[in-house]
Amino acid sequence: KIPFFEIYRAVYFKFGFFIVFSYSIILGLSIHDLNVLLRKRRLLKSVIFFLIPTIILVYNIPSFSGQLPNKDYLTSIPAEYQNASQLLKKDTSDYKILSLPSAPRGSGLILQWGNEKYVGPHPDMFFFDRPVIDGYWFIRQEFFGLTPDDSWTGARFEKQIRSILNYAPILNIKYVLVHKDFVNKYSFGKDNVRKIDGTLKANVLKKELVKIKGLKLIEDNSYFALYELPESYFLEHIYIPNLVLPLNKNKPILLDKKKALTAQKIKLPKYFSHTPDLEFVKINPTKYQLKISKANGLFPLVFSETYDKGWKIYQSKTILGSWFSQPIFEKDHIIINGYANAWLIDPNKLCQDSKCKKNADGFYDINLIVEFLPQRFFYIGLFISSLTLIVCLLYLIYNKTVRR
């Protein structure tokens, strides 16, 4: 309603939280001042200080009752999406979901739910409570010569889906979600209507996916279809490859072995005569506990999360042990599979100080922790904030007791 604010587009989303922030300050100050005035028995001023925040709240009832936002932005979530996480509840493995068709330019989904539309950030990760990769990831990487326009019209991307899913293992993808509720066009304002071809894309995807041998249909309703890929398409979130190939976006990879793709020149044999056994436990999204058995030669450890220098690897048997040790193989932290983290692990170098268990056959058992270091700053900040709150509360209790 404020003049000239239209220049910001989607004003409510950008500035709506200031309303809540303002109310918090106004109410807090009013309650404090009201308390002071009541102590001083200034009843008239007390009534005024009580009325001011009350009037403001009453005046802004449209904000709280949903009358203020554009009605197009108020959407009822279908029950099928609300129950989506139950479909995968039994699968406790660590995996990702591929969401299709791709969001237009990767910016967000535009879905038609009955007479209402959903327009906004990608919601699938909230519905399914799992990490989700949008199909636009492949378009952005220019796989098979795809361009951003392919996320709007036509089905060039969708016709390539079987070749694209050859990369599912290195992306830790286990399920494919096909949105059948994508719109066919969307108006961004006067004289600005964009064609999307949502129905065409969904139909082509379903037609191509059923050609995959061993594909399992989990759910098919009026809003989406959910498929589980065959076991040969799935690699764990953390794995040790026995095959390293050069990265080639235009040549599909084989699905017969654990593999890794690299564009970097690393001193590794193409094939490994022996790969260690690996078990891991996901402590939380920023920390993993690993146990490697039967290790004796150099090998790459692949972690299928976007490469970041903040990801560190530690040698430790306990979850908290990484807090009291230095990261290892920092210089051997490389990008693999075009996006992911990998460390070149040398057991002979790592186990010189007897921190590893050496078996009678000469192989080592190694305990490692993979952790995102910046998360510690959050924990430290949380500890300081909690300690400050506790100290303040104790002081207030003490001060009140002494005064009495």
Structure explained in plain terms:
The chain is an alpha+beta fold. Helix content is 30%, strand content 25%. It has a 5-stranded mixed beta sheet with strand order 4-1-5-9-8. Strands 13, 14, 16, 19 and 20 form a 5-stranded antiparallel beta sheet that branches. A 4-stranded antiparallel beta sheet has the order 10-15-18-17, with no helix packed on it. The longest helix is centred in the last third of the chain and has 30 residues, at 374-403. The chain starts with 10 loop residues before the first helix and ends with a helix. The model has no long low-confidence stretch (mean pLDDT 87).
Q: Gist?
A:
With 404 residues, the protein is an alpha+beta fold. Helix content is 30%, strand content 25%. The chain has 12 helices and 20 strands.
Give short descriptive properties of this protein.
404 residues; flat; 20 strands; five-stranded mixed beta sheet; alpha+beta; five-stranded antiparallel beta sheet; 30% helix; single chain
> Main beta sheet, described?
5 strands, mixed
The helix count comes to 12
Low-pLDDT parts are none
Distance between the termini: 52 Å
- Give the class from helix and strand content and strand pairing: alpha+beta
The rounded Rg comes to 28 Å
Helix content: 25-40%
Give the topology.
Elements: H1 11-39, H2 43-59, H3 61-65, H4 79-82, H5 84-87, E1 96-100, E2 109-113, E3 116-120, H6 124-128, E4 132-134, H7 136-140, H8 156-159, H9 161-164, E5 173-179, E6 185-187, E7 193-195, H10 198-209, E8 216-220, E9 224-228, E10 238-239, E11 244-246, E12 260-262, E13 277-284, E14 287-295, E15 299-306, E16 311-315, E17 333-336, E18 340-345, H11 347-350, E19 357-358, E20 364-372, H12 374-403
Parallel strand pairs: 1-4, 1-5, 11-12
Antiparallel strand pairs: 2-3, 5-9, 6-7, 8-9, 10-15, 13-14, 14-20, 15-18, 16-20, 17-18, 19-20
Helix pairs in contact: 1-2
